[in-house]
Amino acid sequence: MALIRRKWTPAAADEWTREDWITIVLSPLAYITLAIGVALSIFLLKIGFIVLGAGVVLTALMHWVIDPKLKTISEDYEKKQKDYLEELEKIIRWEEIK
Amino acid sequence: MIGCGILFYRLGKRSESDFFLAGRGLPWWLPASSVYATHTAVDTPMWVTGVIYKHGLTGIWYTFFSAWCAISAFVSTRIFRRSLAYTQAEWQSIRFSGLGSELLRGWMTGWQLFMTMFNMGWVGIAMGMICNYLFGWPNWMGLVIFSSVCAIYVLTAGYWGVVMADFQQGIVAFSAILIVSVWGVVAAGGPHEIALKLDVMGQSWRLNPFHFSGWFSGDFPVAWFLTMMVIALVGGFGMGTSIDWYLEAQRIQSARSVRDASYSIWWGTALVVIRNSIWAAAVLAFFVMFPNIKETSEYELGWFRLGFDYLPIGMLGFFFAAILAIHLSTVSSVLNLGSMYATRDLYHHYINPNASQKKLVGIGRLSTILILLGSFLLGLMMEEITKWLIFALWIMVAGVWLPNILQVVWWRFNAWGYLSAWIANLGLSWLVVWILPAFGVIPALPDYLQFWALMVLTALIYIPVTFITRPESMDDLVKYYVMSRPLGVWGPVRREAERQGLLEQVVGIE
């Protein structure tokens, strides 16, 4: 099995998997490197450009890892959304007591 | 911007969902621009300037609290979007059940109504002070005039007007921040010259984002840095761990899909993080030009001074327009958010559950006016109450930070546990922060120790309360689980959902 799964069934995409955890690690690292990289690059420091480059790569990698899964989750969820919305309206009107 | 109100009037008045969530149909980049624009307020550059002037680039970590979205975008955002709740108060009434959930909904609604008026008063009076500095107006004029102008498009088009104006305001604000900051760096002699001057002044440490005062000592120890990182990043697993969550929650639900919701939060915050770094560079330029300012209130205006003192005369109008855009984007978002709590959680749920869509939009507009008036009152009282309210915000973060995560990731955590955490936190924070140090029982603790102490002490109360009260109804938990698919410790609920045949068995997922 590949390290990063690229094709998902709706049921599999609904589970929390390795791809989510990789994204959870990559995402803060991307923010940290972007923050430091932008500030230091404005001062034309070499380390700034390197860190900024790392931030861009981390951002792209994060999207590459998680996007196929998010697409599958979204497509499947949109089909069920109408029913869930009807239920939500019943709760707010006290037709369904929780 | 006011034209947005007229242009989108017809869309905004169609339904409650349109007036508050733009019909849940926005592509990711629209709520993302709204996240960015909303979190760029007139007091933000003052605050960022304050921490960077004092701590150099290490001060960036003070501004990093917005990074809770790094993890939230892919965890709590996904879970919240699937719940379809309009507000955090409504989400809690789906996640919890019975009397406890209704008590929580009422409490959260009241608190958020107050907070929206407070936030609007806060940024409104900041605008009043800027107008006082620029034009000599009394403070109340800047507060009342610009918030009222903003209310026009919020009243007419609701969230449609807010998000469309935010898109324009975001572009104007980002352009102005970039232009003024680059102008400031050039005015200080350019990038190389600033680095050189810092070196000559013996201040080159200001270019190091990891220059701390020690592990536990000084004004910026590593312990404080790590505490801020934990609060921000781990907080992304929960909902409400940052006060910004309540605004973001509205943007999450306005996105047209789960994927759009995730990307809107991630990219909106990425812009905030990048913006802070651009500001930081400009503030270092300001420091090189004015290194000896001692008064906080004076150096906090540093970035504004770069704009007003160094931009060519012809661009000053553009700069003021940008400040106005920054102001209106924050006020409009907060105004519509407060109105949503008043309409959805108070009027629709408790007063008139069978109200027509037309009536609900009307209530949305009425509550917008009432919140606007309340914000004027609080804004004019701000100097007297600020100290107390900063304390209130702090206690809101410290003791309920962990419960805000537990409500998302632990099936057994119930409404009574959450409520007891809030109540315990109110009492304990007074004791730990003020009363016990005042009587010499404990020493005055640094901020990071206050946070950990409050977190542990509050847990000693809400964890037992959770275990001695009943879990939420399993049927309701199963419904919530199947709809939202939360991350964390949900084993018994999942097994019950599988037993009822509500979940498909997945093979090969680790």
Q: How would you summarize what this structure contains?
A:
With 98 residues, chain A is mainly α. In chain A, 78% of the residues lie in helices and 0% in strands.
Summarize the SSE layout with pairings.
The complex is a heterodimer of chains A (98) and B (510).
Chain A lengths: L9 H4 L4 H25 L3 H47 L6
Helix pairs in contact in A: 2-3
Chain B lengths: L1 H6 L1 H4 L3 H6 L7 H10 L5 H12 L12 H5 L3 H8 L4 H8 L2 H38 L3 H49 L3 H10 L21 H13 L10 H10 L3 H32 L6 H4 L2 H9 L5 H36 L5 H42 L2 H9 L5 H24 L8 H22 L5 H11 L6 H9 L11
Helix pairs in contact in B: 4-10, 4-13, 4-14, 5-14, 7-14, 8-9, 9-10, 9-17, 9-18, 9-20, 10-14, 10-16, 10-17, 10-18, 12-21, 13-14, 17-18, 20-21, 22-23
- For the termini of chain B, the CA-CA separation is 50 Å
Query: Can you write the helix and strand succession of chain A as a string?
Result: HHH
CATH topology of chain B: Sodium/glucose cotransporter
Structural shape of chain A: elongated
The count of helical stretches of chain A stands at: 3
CATH architecture assignment name of chain B:
Up-down Bundle
Per CATH, the superfamily of chain B is Sodium/glucose cotransporter
Class per helix and strand makeup of chain A: mainly alpha
Protein structure class of chain B: mainly alpha
The coarse overall form of chain B would be: globular
Number of strands of chain A: 0
**Top CATH class of chain B:** Mainly Alpha
The end-to-end distance of chain A, rounded to whole angstroms, is: 43 Å
Helix content of chain A: over 70%
Number of self-contained structural domains of chain A: 1
How many alpha or pi helices of chain B?
23
What features would you describe in this structure?
The complex is a heterodimer of chains A (98) and B (510). With 98 residues, chain A is mainly alpha-helical. Helices cover 78% and strands 0% of the residues of chain A. In chain A, helix 2 (18-42) packs across helix 3. The model of chain A has no long low-confidence stretch (mean pLDDT 91). Chain B is an all-alpha fold and 510 residues long. Chain B has one domain (2-385): Up-down Bundle (Sodium/glucose cotransporter), CATH 1.20.1730. In chain B, helix 10 packs across helix 16 (302-310). At the A-B interface, helix 2 and helix 3 of A face helix 8, helix 11, helix 14, helix 17 and helix 22 of B.
